[in-house]
Amino acid sequence: MALQKWRGRLAVGALSAGAIALLIAGCSSTPSSTPSDKSSGSTSTAALPKSKTCTSSDDYAKTFKLGTFLPLTGSLAYLGPAAVSGSGQALSEIDKAGGVNGVPTCVISTDSSDTDNPTIGDASIKQLLQAKVSAVLGAESSSVTKNVMDQVFAAETVMLSPANTADDLSGVSKWYFRTAPPNAIEANALGNLILGDGYTKVAVLVFNDAYGTNLRDGIQKVVESGGGKVVYGASGAGQDFPSTETSFGSIVSAALATNPDAIVIDAFDQTKAIIPALASAGWDMKKSYLIDGNLADFSKDFDPGTMTGAQATAQGVNPNDKFKATLRGWYKKNAGKSVDDFGYGAEAYDGTILMALAAQKGGSSDPATIQKNLAAVSGTTNGTKCKTYAACLALVKGGKEIQYTGPSGVGPFNDKQDPSTGYISVYKYGNNNNYTWQSSVKG
Amino acid sequence: MRSRRTLRPALLLFGLVLAGALSLLGVETATAVTTAGPAATTTIEVNCLPGPTNGCIRGTLRDAAGAAVAKAKIGVTGPDGTTVTATTNKAGQFGFSLETAGSYTVKLDTSTLPRGLKVAEPQFSAEIPFQSLRAAVFRVTGSQGGDTAAATSGLGARVFQQAASGLRLGLLLALASIGLSLVYGTTGLANFAHAEQVTLGGILAYVFTRLVGVPLLGAIAIAVAICALTGWLQDRFIWAPLRRKGLGVSQLMIVTIGLSLALEYVFQYFIGGGTVQITTSIQRNVGPLTIPSYISMAIAVVVLVVVGCVLLFTRIGKATRAVSDNRALAAASGIDVDRIIRLVWIAGTGLAGLGGILYAIVQNGIKWDTGLQILLMMFAAVTLGGLGTAFGALLGSLIIGLVVELSNLILPSDLKYATALFILIVILVFRPQGILGRRSRVG
Known about the structure:
The structure holds two protein chains of two kinds.
Chain A: H1 2-42, E1 52-53, E2 65-70, H2 80-96, E3 106-111, H3 118-130, E4 135-138, H4 142-154, E5 158-161, E6 176-178, H5 183-196, E7 201-206, H6 210-225, E8 229-232, H7 249-256, E9 262-266, H8 271-280, E10 288-290, E11 311-315, H9 321-335, H10 345-362, H11 367-380, E12 384-386, H12 389-397, E13 402-404, E14 423-429, E15 435-442
Parallel strand pairs in A: 1-3, 2-3, 2-4, 4-5, 5-6, 7-8, 7-9, 9-10, 10-11, 12-13
Antiparallel strand pairs in A: 11-14, 14-15
Helix pairs in contact in A: 1-9, 2-9, 2-10, 3-4, 5-6, 10-11, 10-12
Chain B: H1 2-25, E1 42-44, E2 55-60, E3 73-77, E4 83-87, E5 93-98, E6 102-109, E7 118-119, E8 123-128, E9 133-135, E10 140-141, H2 155-187, H3 194-212, H4 216-244, H5 249-271, H6 291-313, H7 315-325, H8 327-332, H9 337-362, H10 370-385, H11 390-406, H12 416-430
Parallel strand pairs in B: 2-9
Antiparallel strand pairs in B: 1-5, 2-5, 3-4, 3-6, 6-8, 7-10
Helix pairs in contact in B: 2-6, 2-7, 2-9, 2-10, 2-11, 3-4, 3-5, 3-9, 3-10, 4-9, 6-7, 6-9, 7-9, 10-11, 10-12, 11-12
């Protein structure tokens, strides 16, 4: 009886907590839905339905079973919607074109989370490997990939990352592929951009994650070879900040005390707290550079004019508005939410289509077949160029060699299974704190 | 009619292109001395951006003091042997668009440099493919005199700046952690979910200002009221019943850890993984900090002094201290212990909420896990000052805040939190009850 009463009271407590939660939900959902409503109105074609969720009866040799391993929670969760909608849209298009080897695809979506929550990613990978998926799409963070990759390679499953950029993942296993060019290519473009703007004393505000420090090392190499110097945040200087940092006052003071000409903000979401700290300290944002990891629309976060003139580089060509609208439409229909950030959406889309084409070419969607044929469909055999799954499918069925060229613009895989060419786009922030595409640099 | 309709956009386009080209050329770029044939393959373009049919060489000439060097001549010799010479503009900039891919030699005419400036290596060669951007950097020794860009921020200024940040962090920590200390004092419970009370305050303030549109002060009042209400609800429905059941302190602590994790993910579910801002406006620093920072610090001081005085001089305060000292004795002397504890919960959560709001404002944003990131600092602060004492929490917080923000003067940034916790251990070894804590009485 006592226990009964106790339970009842807990339930009331839970209910009241829920009521508060609902209150927050009611408020937060309103503004985020408005921009997407506007944009989805501009999509001409109706959004495609999601492909089905895999069941235990699906066999990976017959059905193309994609396991997505993408950040749905954690510090990279803001990048999740782009990759989820990118791969989802790809699967929907594949199904519409008749599936892989004539069978509709299926998907198991899991959460990779971030390096602060390694148990989530570990559980997700175990779930995917137990379900015997044809291939894993993920992770986004290079550090998360490193945490789980040994299990995936031991299970002889293909792992294709749409966003890993760490240089040391090049050629790590025959099962590992990626559709994002490694950091060195971006570092080269960014370093030259900074030097070309006439800045030689560069401060790097870098967080100590493999992604951040790896890119920093690359930038430092380019800046130093061009006669410049990294005055703050250099490799080995011990000025990297922890990825969980919330207080940037002293970090900004220390960086500005070195009198830099330019500052590179080499971080993820921490950027939202770094920019105001820099602006408060009187830093001229025109001399600031962002990277692919924090290239985002800040129009809702800061007053107009805060970021005017800041520049950024990011992997990939500028996803065009039509592709963005397609992803928005797909996500709105299938997840009911809006996509605000498009980072790595095109790479996830291309990765999914490449793997499906490899399975189609080999006649089976088991991991070994996909692994064997991925390079060929990406264009290493100098095949006929084709842009969509449907078009490529027709060529493959006709026994032709193909080269799939998708919206991300990555070239054929090289012998380390990295994209052999990649594009780095240069963006500039305007008065509205949103970025516009300037040009693409080939790496 | 028809032809005019087609002509007008064409004219407009032409005008735009012309205007764009003119603005790209820049006014200060002087004459191009070219000996090329009919199709000049290299053009002067200060803000050259690479494209599919051109590569770029860009640079900005600065003297050793960082001042732009104008009117210096820089020549680029292409693969066909022709040379194009540009003159640096007022900002020291120069740039070339190269419409032939190949090897180029860039040479600075040192005789055109202002007197006193020298360049050791005025010439270099580089391979410039299409779609690439190459920075041209010349290391200039000597300065043009006049205004040598004075190093404004010396070490003293930096120490002052960071000490101010440390004081600010300390006061906010004190405000956020006083509830933690009081709850511990009255109930003996180390409440891990206190961190989420801090986050809740910031998030609610974000919801009411940004999403509902309540003015800042009103939003703060509402958020603090809701936070205080959650304190009441928690004690009414969770802690009081559990106390009555006679659960041990360690079991209760596990409950708080569970509650902490649950709340964190509830926050993430509703506001996502990114940082949210309460205010979009960014204030420039006045002295070492921004005006909102000073106001927040003043609020923290006033609230802390009021809480301290209430504890010292009012009947409720005395009752609280009595409960804190000896619960059984307090109960025996006619104090309603449960009522006091409930009051402590309400005040503690309300203050934590206020602390979270101010933290989010001065540290430029709040995230679903911000509370968790500062929880260790809060525990360190209250333990250092003496668990269960209000002024101890203040003193401990100030020490922790200063250590965290000043440590990067001599230690790597990575170690800033480690330093604070190391000091905690050292002090506890010599003074286990904390700086202001009293030795527990026996009997």
